[in-house]
Specification:
Blueprint lengths: L24 E4 L6 H19 L7 E6 L5 H14 L3 E7 L2 H11 L3 E4 L8 E8 L3 E2 L6 H14 L13 E3 L3 H11 L8 E6 L5 H8 L11 E6 L21 H9 L4 E5 L6 E4 L5 E2 L1 H18 L5 E5 L5 H8 L3 E5 L3 H11 L3 E3 L5 E3 L5 E2 L1 H13 L5 H6 L5 E2 L3 E4 L3 H14 L7 E3 L4 E4 L7 E7 L5 E8 L2 H15 L6
Helix pairs in contact: 1-2, 1-4, 8-9, 8-11
Length: 495
Amino acid sequence: MGYRDAVPETSALPDLTGLIKAYDVRGTVPDQLNADVARAIGAAFADVVVLPEAADGARPRVVIGNDMRPSGPELVGAFAEGLAARGVDVITIGLCSTDGLYFASGKLGIPGAMFTASHNPAEYNGIKLCRAGARPVGQDSGLSRVRDLAAEYLRDGVPTPAEGAATGEVTEQDLLGDYASFLRGLVDLSGIRPLKVVVDAGNGMGGFTAPAVLGTDAGLPALPLEVVPLYFELDGTFPNHEANPLEPENLRDLQKAVVEHGADIGLAFDGDADRCFVVDENGDPVSPSAITALVGLREIEREKAEGRTPTVIHNLITSMVVPDLVTAAGARAVRTRVGHSFIKAQMAESDAVFGGEHSAHYYFRDFFFADTGMLAALHVLAALGGQPHPLSALAEQYQPYVASGEINSRVTDVAAARARVVEAYVEQQGAGPVTVDELDGLTVSHWDGHPQWWFNLRASNTEPLLRLNVEAADEDIMEKVRDDVLALVRQEGEA
């Protein structure tokens, strides 16, 4: 039986354009995302992605997981109903991190759906969709068609399978142990020196995955790690701090705990535990660009040892240290736009061994070209524990330059603000010879001259914001470039 007898009133139909975005589904519960919407999206996902890719004669299948948000189980159930109504079998794996869902999609070779809103506040939830093998589904690779079809199913009801075709079955499977074993098999920590590690899960899924991967909860042998847990209790209301370590205030508890416990390292995960941030023994953050360089060099060494020419991907906001060190190590550095769909596409196209972003997303060919914060953490622990020096000394070589971090300016006229910057730095060439590209926003570089600096100015896709990132060889130059560009951007006053 279909759902045509349970169609919501047309006037009450939600607008999916604000819910289904460029890369994922994300909105507030229940006004934007509820059981009816999830059911329609599930059926549309079946028709747009799952059924067309199913092998001839094989039962189409999808794997679904969810984070700790209270709305997750109901939304997963409704999404599964939508899939089953279209003849798709569903495997639910329950609580998992986003990279745990990617693992399931890769291991099982089937499309997947992860119910999470990452670091967003408690009233939000969302869905990250992927094709078989954890390949992303974005606006240009099926998500816009899923949105349009889901809107149709919301209006008219989800149709039943073709005559004679069976509805799908929903079963459960536990893959946490397999996920932990898989990651441990990629990085050997058994021979490192003992390390004390503080892990801040932010009440997110890191509290579920860290005990399995770094500890013995999944039945794996103990590692030479003493893990000090912070906020491991799964709580989608985030009672201690936002599960977004990109914001400095959300690292303060971890920084304090690392120093108080005399720990060697601190790790912080975001809500769905696909990003990992690192703090050294002094409580100082290690930049994601430094982690990209550190892990990238490890993967380059392994790739070269196997007789291959390595490729490492980095987005255009990462530090210049990344391409500098990658090319010096005999590998190819490929620069991409910001955003996981671009990185993943470029990773697959280039057969890259590793990729990193300034936002602490780390991508591995050995992990289905997908991002996993936990695997990046294992690499950092292996590098730290494989030599005698503290993390601050180890990280120093990967942080030679000074960065501003991302600075947002709310402006009344984005185009006019950008034009002022172009006139000052490009048309007048007042700063001396510069190179300019528009791969993602406006990047102006004086890196081949003296003093060395570059900046990128990108417009937000959803707000009247300009995002500025500046890097230079020293603090004074970074501050001057930062302040000069911001003065141009904000010349007409902020909105």
